[in-house]
Amino acid sequence: MKVFLKKNCFGLTFLLIILIAGFLRFYQLGINPPSLTWDEASIGYNAYSILKTGKDEYGTRLPLSIRSFDDYKPPLYVYLTVPSVGMFGLNEFSVRLPSAIIGILSVITIYFLVKEFLQKWDRKKQELIALFSAFFLAISPWSLQFSRAAFEGNIGVFFLMLGILLILKGFRNGRYLIFSSIALVLSIYSYHSFRLLIPLLLFFLAIFFWQEILRKKVIFFIFFVSLILLTLPVYLSFLKAQDSGSRLSMVTIFSDPSVIESSIKRIDYDNDNDQIGNLFHNRRIVYGLTIAKGYFDHFNPDFLFFHGDGGVQHHAVDMGMLYLWDLPFIILGVHFLLNRFNRYTGVLFLIFLLSPLPAAITTGTPHSVRAIGMQLGFHIFTAVGVVIIVTKLLQVRSVIYKGFLIGTIALVLIINFFYYFHQYYVHTPIEYGYFWQYGYKEALQYARENEASFEKIIMTYRYDQPYIYYLFYNKIDPSWYQKNWDYNKTGSTDRFKRVIGKYEFKNIEYSKDSLNSNTLLIGTPQEIPDSTKPVKIIKFPDGSVAFKIIKT
Fold this sequence. Notes:
The chain is mostly helical. The chain has helices at about 1-25, 40-55, 75-90, 90-115, 125-140, 140-145, 150-170, 175-190, 195-210, 210-215, 215-235, 245-250, 260-270, 275-280, 285-295, 300-305, 325-340, 345-355, 355-360, 375-395, 400-430, 440-450, 465-475, 480-485, 510-515, and strands at about 455-460, 495-500, 505, 520-525, 535-540, 545-550.
């Protein structure tokens, strides 16, 4: 009877955690964040295009990378969005729905993954740490931020967790390995970082578990061969000038001349035969130090606990990626796990320590999306620390003292959580509205309602990619657009000028564009002079002007 009640208690607690995760990910999903980013709009419209025609916006049938803004996005999120757009229409909710669902599934998956990591531990501690890990992921700022918007990294980390879970189960039962290979393939097709992270993880897993692999060599051979064959198109794409390899060339430190610019100058300053100078200022040394700095940037307390990274879409106002109260429990959890280190907990440390590497070779570190796999380690470390502390406190004889200490821990957690909740729902939409590309929907709604009165509508490109919002919010027929999008003979788009029907998207030159007759101009405050009388002003949530709309 006691065992039955205990199992029921754990089961009900797990169900409650899942419900909390669902509420936090679905509450106001379509309206907060306050606007779709252009990447979200692109994902949505390309999903709509594939739903209607089987092709992306450029007319490529079932592409393995989404050309989008010539940044060639991984395809998985777009394909996951096709059913939600089919069910709920082309809107903010349908674009973010796959991420929210995956966020909930991640909470479920980490519960079972922790049990695999701790399979050598006492069953009760396994259960408690698994539950706390799921709970901390459910309320995590890092997870919530990326589960409530269309971030491909959120999809990738779920399939990574699922793939590792199934591999660990596969060491005991080989049939899980087939499903593991599918999960890892999906992770690789979801986000660029996992294209480096997963091969590294598999290499070290093969070292850790070589005996198990030899015992099941046939099924592991099938596992590795299927993984290689199914992901080969992704890795071959890096050899092309276009496709997903071009995305890497945009962000890698190796394509940024400023990284080695100073070292080149210093070599020039050195004497011709200064071997020491050539050694210290060697570009390989410079790249190595830059990668090391980028790697350790992800352990910076300011990034983790106070202000997050440089991308304000990645965190709430005045919030890091984790709660401040996590810190002491993380330290305690790491210490405890290292003292009880084995191959299975070693896999946890592998994921944690390897996850920043894809971000480290890019510019703009720390980067919470590219290093999103780190969050698993942080939440599990926190859970271990909490269980250790609570277990110790429960042994305290004084009921009052025991209750006071446990209550204090709970109170600090609650205060931190509601502070984050307040910052996310109250301040972030107002203060970060600009960075979420707020205003396009409202400006295009006015244009759509009045377009019959004008021969031409010119909308600024100053905030970037306005055309995708036009396609998205007007639900432009993809089959028509695929035939009529403006392109030159090389097949490449002019980033800063697109013409779609009577709509033209470009940076506004008021002195010239105002000479057009019967034209609606939608521009920034910098482009439209103060002396004009706008027919409509679109404001950011903080009250500053986003767009001025005038008639000519």
